[in-house]
Design a protein that fits this description.
Elements: H1 7-23, E1 34-35, H2 37-47, H3 49-68, E2 75-81, H4 93-96, E3 98-107, H5 112-178, H6 184-219, E4 229-230, H7 245-255, H8 257-279, E5 284-293, E6 296-304, H9 314-379, H10 385-420, H11 429-433, H12 435-438
Parallel strand pairs: 1-4
Antiparallel strand pairs: 2-3, 3-5, 5-6
Helix pairs in contact: 2-5, 2-6, 3-5, 5-6, 5-8, 5-10, 7-9, 8-9, 9-10
């Protein structure tokens, strides 16, 4: 005999299972305090509305395949002949009236049923590829939005740090002014610079919030919550030994889902051509039933064969064949467009890389050295306040430029991967430098 489970134990077990199921993932209307790239991608993959729509389309297409596999319905006919209401002798219903009751079953010829199934399967393949394409596009949008938001977050952190550091300079000059060491004009200049940094911080905070909102939109997250931080992700390194330009172009022609969809659409139309050819063959009607005539019960049988004298479905066949030519031409144009997108994305990567190399080849060190010299000279009374402010501003600008160059290079690499259709794409250092294109 089974053990009786008290209500309290049932409630307790339900609560434990509920907490276990909700602890691994955030609630539907909230985000974690810190969002990593993989977290953003997972949220988009699990709940983006566009993905749900694409999945419903794929699942719905299976019913069309089932529908195409069904046979045509038979028809039932019942009729009476020689019925009259006057005359001599009077009507003897059982002897004088002919009664027909028969079933007509259409016999599809030419492989129409298998043709419909094949068209349905081809269309389902297109919908599945489009679902994968939708998922890929959402994934790339999230990746780009994440790195843009991380760029804005880092810029805000740097500006806040500069504002806090400069705050100590302002306090120091206030004490000097109160002691009568510096004139009021110098204190005003320092305070104006502090105000400029505070305005920059306010603008950067707004940009960071906007970037986070754009990230949540790319994730398909239904909330205006932007009070979260992004986890700092490692940047991709440009190293030697990666793919060449020709290899990248070949990869794009194979991996880009737009091209795969176009190929699948061509197969759909070719299957439709075969179906239209099958529809050009006339169906037969098999007739089997019962007939009562002259008081005798008999069987009725026959076959109805249309004569294909005029309509052989020529127009629909010719139209589908022309559609194959049209879609093949579109595919060739799409391949050209994909190639141009790859070259444009690669060009942007090369520009960002050259900017980063230029900044790291001495500009960062020079800005730090200029700031250190100006600060030391000013502390010893041998420097000018304006030079100190200019050196500090130049240093901050160069640091911000370097941070932006690093993350913009990462963003452009993500866009290049999206244009090729391959994530974590390794490209050669010579190609990034532009040396391969020069050759």
């Amino acid at each position: 005999m089974g053990r009786f489970v008290p209500l309290q134990e049932i409630v307790f077990l339900f609560a434990i299972s509920f907490l276990a199921s909700t602890s691994a993932y955030p609630a539907a209307d909230t985000l974690p305090d810190e969002v990593a790239l993989e977290t953003a991608l997972r949220i988009a993959r699990e709940g983006h509305p566009s993905l749900l729509v694409a999945e419903r389309s794929v699942s719905g297409s299976r019913h069309l395949i089932d529908q195409g596999a069904l046979r045509r319905n038979p028809s039932f006919s019942f009729q009476m002949e020689n019925v009259r209401f006057t005359g001599d002798p009077s009507l003897d219903f059982s002897d004088d009236v002919d009664i027909f009751a028969y079933v007509t079953q259409p016999l599809e010829r030419g492989g129409k049923r298998s043709g419909r199934v094949e068209v349905g399967k081809r269309r389902q393949q297109v919908l599945e590829l489009r679902r994968v394409q939708t998922e890929w596009m959402i994934r790339q949008e999230v990746r780009v939005a994440f790195w843009k938001a991380l760029l804005a977050q880092k810029e805000l952190a740097m500006i806040r740090e500069n504002t806090q550091l400069f705050g100590s300079v302002v306090e120091y000059h206030k004490s000097l002014f109160q002691e009568g060491v510096i004139p009021e004009a110098d204190l005003v200049r320092i305070q104006l610079e502090q105000g400029r940094l505070e305005l920059m911080e306010e603008a950067a905070a707004g940009d960071a919030r906007t970037a986070r909102l754009e990230l949540t939109a790319a994730m398909g997250f239904e909330t205006g919550d932007a009070d979260f931080l992004l986890v700092d992700e490692p940047l991709s390194k440009v190293e030697g030994g990666g793919a060449s330009l020709e290899e990248i172009r070949q990869l794009a022609r194979v991996k880009r889902l737009e091209i795969q969809v176009a190929r699948a659409e061509i197969e759909v139309i070719r299957a439709e051509v075969e179906l239209e050819k099958a529809n050009g063959r006339q169906d037969w009607d098999l007739i089997l039933g019962y007939k009562r005539t002259g008081g005798f019960d008999t069987l009725l049988g026959g076959i109805s064969i249309p004569l294909p004298l005029f309509d052989k479905n020529q127009g629909n066949i010719a139209f589908r064949i022309s559609e194959v030519d049209r879609v093949e031409a579109m595919q060739r144009q799409r391949a050209v467009t994909v190639d141009a997108e790859v070259l444009a994305a690669l060009s942007r990567v090369q520009r960002r890389y050259r900017t980063l190399v230029k900044l790291e080849s001495g500009m960062l060190d020079q800005a730090e050295e200029s700031w250190s010299i100006a600060r030391a000279a000013y502390a010893e009374g041998a420097g000018d306040l304006l030079r100190l402010i200019d050196a500090q501003r130049s240093r901050n600008d160069i640091l911000l430029l370097h941070n932006r160059a690093e993350l913009e290079l990462q963003i452009e690499r993500v866009k290049l991967e999206a244009s090729v259709g391959v994530e974590n794409l390794q490209i050669g250092l010579e190609l990034v430098k532009g040396e391969e294109l020069k050759d």
